[in-house]
Request: fold
Amino acid sequence: MTARIGVVTFPGSLDDRDTQRAIRLAGAEPVALWHKDKNLHQVDAVVLPGGFSYGDYLRAGAISRFSPVMETVIEQAKAGLPVLGICNGFQVLTEAHLLPGGMLGNDHLHFICRDQKLRVENADTAWTADYSAGQEIHIPLKNMDGRYVADRYTLDELEAEGRVAFRYLDFNPNGSLNDIAGITNEAGNVVGLMPHPEHAVEPLIGSGRTDGLPFFTSILKKLVTA
Amino acid sequence: MARVVVDVMLKPEILDPQGQAVQRALPRLGFDGISDVRQGKRFELEVDGPVDEAALARIHDLAESFLANTVIEDFTVKVEEVAEAAK
Reply:
């Protein structure tokens, strides 16, 4: 038996299918979840994919955060359900206050799309265990609102507790404080990042690297051995 | 009928590149002497019925939980009388 990993589709989600594909390639079973459905259909973990849910109206992730499916995701994430937020999914997680801080427009005010070098800072979370701490990886990045901000106290806390999961290397693409590309909650079950690991799982496409695959093998191993 | 206005601004310590872009355009337009611009959002809520303390409290909750993200933004709530005589 393999693990069932849900992928939520909001109106305006773009990368839900790619995420399902990445989950399948890792050997788990993807389960499509619908934003209007509170029922998570007994999945073992949830991915909130990239895109522009609700057109990013008000703030990126602000309206999705109040969707019926998120009611259950928020409740279960607090009880330990593994949740990964990619790009827009990361924005939803900060709006839902499952992760601290907030996301704002890139400091240069342009959309950005590039192959981004990252350093894995925390390889102890549910979604990063197949990496090693300090490992350098390349993951595609594409966003408008990728600037991670938090107050000084929150930043100090994240740094002190090792909760910066990924950091931009060589180039800060959006003005994120402390070069933060992704963070984890205290328990390590909720992780959010701006770059798109689901776009780096097959050698034939993109940069030709499969540096994103360990996200999905990490969670699979955790769920299957649990 | 009354209108309640919710103004939302980025917290002062947070960089506002849109405001900066506006500010940098000002000298070209012949506007001197403006040293800083910050851009925010204004929500106008048309309220049915009286805007009493209870209604204002509900709007305050709405602003705090939805219209603003208080991790990165501050907000103010104020009542604006709508002139109906014009109709």
